[in-house]
Every structure is written in C-alpha cells, then in structure tokens.
Design goal:
- By secondary structure, this protein is an alpha/beta fold.
- The strands form 4 sheets. Strands 5, 6, 7, 10, 11 and 12 form a 6-stranded parallel β-sheet that branches. Strands 1-2 form a two-stranded antiparallel ribbon. A two-stranded antiparallel sheet has the order 3-4.
- Strand 1 and strand 2 form a beta hairpin.
C-alpha cells in the first residue's frame, strides 16, 4: 500500500498526499471526538485531549459485591469517571486561563448485593466512607425524643429497627421517628431468639412486624435485624423470602450494660471504620453519648447515613456525583 501511495503521489501531486494525511488524522480520532463532531462544527482538540488525559488518570474502578468468609455478604461500591463529552460541552466556551470544570459519573459495580443470595450482612463496603447507627427499639421511650433532637441538630438520618409489639403500642412515637426523616425497619415482633423458633413461628415474628410497618406507618420493609443478633440460616431464608435482607452489626455500643457515656464515645471513636454498622438502643448511655459519637465518627472523615444508604453501592463523592 505504501508503494502504491508514493506512486500515485508522483503522478497526481499534492492532492493525494494531503488526502493521505487526512486519512491518518481520521484514524487517530478518539470516539469522543467523533461524537462531538456530530454536535459541533469544530472540536477544540487541545481541550478534548486534556480532558481525556485527566479522565484516564482519575478513573476509579468499581468494586463488586462479594461473600466474605468472615463478614458474609459485603455490598459493592460504584466506580467513578469523568464524563468526557459532558465536560467538553460545559467548558468549550470557557475563557482562556479558566480551569476546567469536570463532570463526573458513576461506574456501576457488575455484582450487587441482590445477586449474592441468602446471606447475612454485617458491614458496608470498606471503600465507602459512610457508617450507620442501628438503633434497635423495644423499650426506652423516654430516650427516643432526646436522641431524635440530637440527630436533628446534627442533620443526621439513620435507621431505627422496631420491635413489632412496641410498634403496636407506640404508633405515635414511631410515626414521629418517621416524620423526622429516619428509616424504620423490622426487629421481629416479640424480641425472641430467632434460632430457637420453629419455621412457622419465625415466619410469624418477621411477617407480623412487616405487616405492621406497612399498616401503621405506610413503610415498605427492606431490612430485618434479628433480636440480640441471634439467628440461623432458616431466619435468613425466611427474611429473604419476604424480600428482606438480614442485617447485623460491625461495632456494638453494648449500651444495655449501662457503660459510661464517655466510654461509649471512646470506643466508637477509636474503632469505627468505613462501612461500619453501629448497634445501639434508646438508653441513657447512648442518649448521652450520641453527640460525642457523631463528632468522633466525623473526625475520621466519615459520613453517617441510614442502613440503606450505607449498604448502597452509590458513591460518596467530593464532586457530588
């Protein structure tokens, strides 16, 4: 082919040489350039190349959900990349010397929590800088509103797991938790040891509270937290059959033993890590420790969200994507 081009060039002259260079230029075009040429009369290739280089340098690959030998089901965490075409469109008219404003998008993980099957969950993905406070409620009414007030002051939403028999007697207080923007979920009906129940009784414990959440609060239940952390595979399977994932905890305040609030704050602040689910109850210890716990968690650069948010593959990004 090279000999043929030279031969033609010697007869037809510069026109063929120019055409050959245009052919080579077309081959070197990126997919982004071709897409943008369909929308713009001319493409600023210097700008496009700078954006593409930054995109290649900053791309973060997604992490798939997996079943771990210790932690069981661990959710995935989406990756992130620069949206080259949208970034170009946003910056093509910027003034000389102005920095490029990048547009980011998430790269979905290929394997999600839903694909892992019937496994308990003890933690979120360790790459996600978020934790959740799991507040199990079967008693302690006098501490609930003070805790809600602190959560409001700190602009935090988290997850309350409600015992069904408590919900049946305390609908107004449960509705207040929901009104404040928190997630409310399933903590069985009568606080039993789930592993010791027959299948029919276990189904009743989970199903009755699931129905109450819908009937009394209009909540579609997603998560099941077995009382005292006691469960077996039958428990997980029953919850799964009802569309619920069984969730436990990574770090325990052990507030039912009435530790000093200061010791609770020290424990949580020193041990918390990304993806942790922190177990607590409406007790005097946790109520008095709550603000300090929040400060200690934030001091480690961690966000606090609901269980659904913490176990979601959605990124927490400094770019807001």
């Amino acid at each position: 082919m090279a000999v043929l081009l030279i031969s033609i060039a010697s007869v037809a002259g510069v026109a063929v040489i120019t055409g050959s260079w245009e052919y080579i230029r077309q081959l070197n075009k990126t997919e982004h350039a071709i897409q943008l040429e369909q929308q713009f009369e001319a493409v600023d290739m210097d700008l496009l190349r700078e954006i593409e280089a930054e995109a290649a340098k900053t791309r973060i690959e997604p992490v798939d959900a997996k079943v771990d030998s210790v932690w069981k089901a661990i959710p995935g965490y989406n990756g992130q990349e620069i949206d080259v075409e949208e970034t170009y469109k946003r910056n093509v008219k910027r003034k000389a010397g102005e920095p490029i404003t990048y547009v980011y998008r998430q790269i979905p993980a290929k394997v999600t929590l839903d694909q892992l099957g019937e496994h308990p969950i003890y933690r979120g993905n360790p790459n996600k800088p978020m934790v959740s406070l799991m507040i199990n409620v079967a008693w302690g009414n006098e501490f609930i509103e003070p805790m809600l007030d602190i959560l409001d002051e700190e602009k935090i939403k988290t997850t309350f797991f409600l015992d069904g028999s408590w919900l049946a007697k305390n609908q107004e207080l449960a509705a207040e938790i929901l009104k404040r923007g928190h997630e409310v979920e399933n903590h069985a009906y009568s606080h039993p040891n789930m592993s010791q129940l027959s299948r029919s009784r276990a189904e009743l414990e989970i199903g009755k509270t699931q129905d109450l959440l819908k009937e009394k609060l209009g909540v579609t239940n997603q998560w099941f937290a077995p009382p005292s952390g006691d469960f077996n595979q039958q428990t997980v399977s029953i919850a799964h059959s009802r569309g619920l994932k069984t969730v436990l905890w990574t770090l325990d305040t052990v507030d039912w033993k009435k530790p000093s609030p200061e010791s609770v704050v020290r424990k949580i602040s020193s041990k918390v890590e990304p993806g942790f689910l922190i177990l607590m109850h409406p007790t005097s210890s946790s109520s008095k420790a709550l603000k300090g716990m929040i400060q200690g968690i934030r001091a480690k650069g961690l966000h606090i969200g609901t269980v659904s948010e913490t176990l979601s593959p959605e990124r927490i990004s400094p770019y807001g994507s």
